[in-house]
Design a protein that fits this description.
alpha/beta
Length: about 170
């Protein structure tokens, strides 16, 4: 019995600690401008009125619904913790499940963080999209490249955070 579903997944690898600032958002905008449906979540740094970074929101690509996934307290900062709210991260998976159920032409997930590396967070939704034949691009820190390779069984492409490279991968599907 043959399986007609092929894995169409790519890791957009970025240097650990730097994070991708605009490449994925620019890529999503370009793909949507060509009439494709795109779902998933992007991350956006949140700043207070003084310009101090106060956290991170996961933003649903289709509805722009915001999920405040990181809001470190003073205690978190003192302990060296990022302040990830696991329940809100899990709640943000609704955007991925909605995209998978449509299905969309492309699913974007920013990012393959600690929870996903442990098989938690958005990991099940990423795997569900891949096994359903939906093309997926996931932002992956370079420090997690091995974990990503294990997670995908080595079936995903590796891309740099370069708009042209992302577009070339997409147009080659």
């Amino acid at each position: 019995m043959s399986n007609d579903i092929s894995i169409k997944a790519a890791a957009m690898l970025y240097p650990s600690g730097s994070g991708d600032k605009n490449t994925l958002a620019s890529f999503v905008k370009a793909v949507k401008a060509k009439g494709y449906s795109v779902g998933g979540v992007l991350q956006e740094q949140i700043y207070d009125t003084d310009g101090t970074n106060i956290g991170v929101d996961a933003v649903a690509i289709d509805t722009e619904e915001r999920f405040p996934i990181v809001r470190p307290s003073k205690e978190d900062i003192a302990a060296g913790s990022c302040g990830l709210n696991r329940s809100v991260l899990t709640e943000s998976s609704i955007a991925l499940r909605r995209a998978i159920s449509k299905p969309v032409d492309l699913l974007i997930v920013e990012k393959f963080g600690e929870r996903e590396q442990l098989g938690e967070g958005l990991a099940d939704d990423i795997m569900s999209a891949m096994s359903g034949g939906i093309p997926v691009i996931v932002a992956v820190p370079m420090s997690a490249k091995q974990k990503w390779t294990e997670f995908t069984g080595g079936l995903a492409a590796s891309l740099s955070p370069d708009l042209t490279e992302l577009e070339d991968w997409w147009s080659g599907l």
